[in-house]
Amino acid sequence: MDDRAPEQTIQATRLRNKMSTHEATIKWKRQTPDFGYSDYNREHSWSFPGGGVVEASAAPQFLGKAENVDPEEAFVTSVSSCHMLTFLAICARKKIIVDSYEDRACGYMEKNRLGRLAITRIELSPQIQFNGTPPEDHVLDNIHHLSHQQCFIANSINTQLTVLDTPSR
């Protein structure tokens, strides 16, 4: 029997299951005299422990500034970035040399099965250049499949993720 207090047991379990933490500070300050839905500013910043700062806003459809990153764009970007990083790690382990990787990812905001707006699906369209002969299509498909299975972000979401058939070079 565990003699520790319940809080200590919960904390010990959390520490045992946690591999890492990821933090961000989100800052917003009202810059408008009125606070009606159509009036208040959506601009805010995301700052990270390493010093990076991203100017963010709501999507333009929700009265945000188009030149700032919106949460939906960041979500699609994080999925694409995680898939790419996992893809590169798998290729490196398999001794398949990648020279460049560029993805034009697209997320679709639609009503989900509960009738709520959500990014329900994301399509990745990676253009990959390999050093030497590119892997055969079935090998490349398998690496993308493994990348999806092993991507931490993909494992954290319910969004359907599709890698479109794109030629490798």
- Helix share of residues? 25-40%
Strand content: 15-25%
List low-confidence stretches: none
Mean pLDDT: 90
> Which strand order do you get reading across the main beta sheet?
1-2-3
Number of strands: 8
Cα distance, first to last residue? 60 Å
Q: What structural class results from the helix and strand content?
A: alpha+beta
Number of distinct helices:
3
What string gives the helices and strands in order? Answer: HEEEHEEEEHE
Radius of gyration: 21 Å
Based on CA inertia axes, which overall geometry fits?
globular
Main beta sheet strand tally, sense and closure:
3 strands, antiparallel
Structure at a glance:
29% of the residues lie in helices and 24% in strands. With 169 residues, it is of the alpha+beta class.
Essential attributes:
single chain, 169 residues, alpha+beta, 3 helices
Describe the structure.
The strands form three sheets. The chain has a three-stranded antiparallel sheet with strand order 1-2-3, with no helix packed on it. The protein has 169 residues and is α+β, with helices and mostly antiparallel strands. It is built from three helices and eight strands; from the N terminus they run H-E-E-E-H-E-E-E-E-H-E. Strand 2 and strand 3 form a beta hairpin. Helix 2 packs across helix 3. The model has no long low-confidence stretch (mean pLDDT 90). The protein has helices at residues 6-17, 71-93, 137-150; strands at residues 25-27, 44-47, 53-56, 98-103, 106-111, 117-124, 126-130, 160-163. The protein starts with 5 loop residues before the first helix and ends in a 6-residue tail after the last strand.
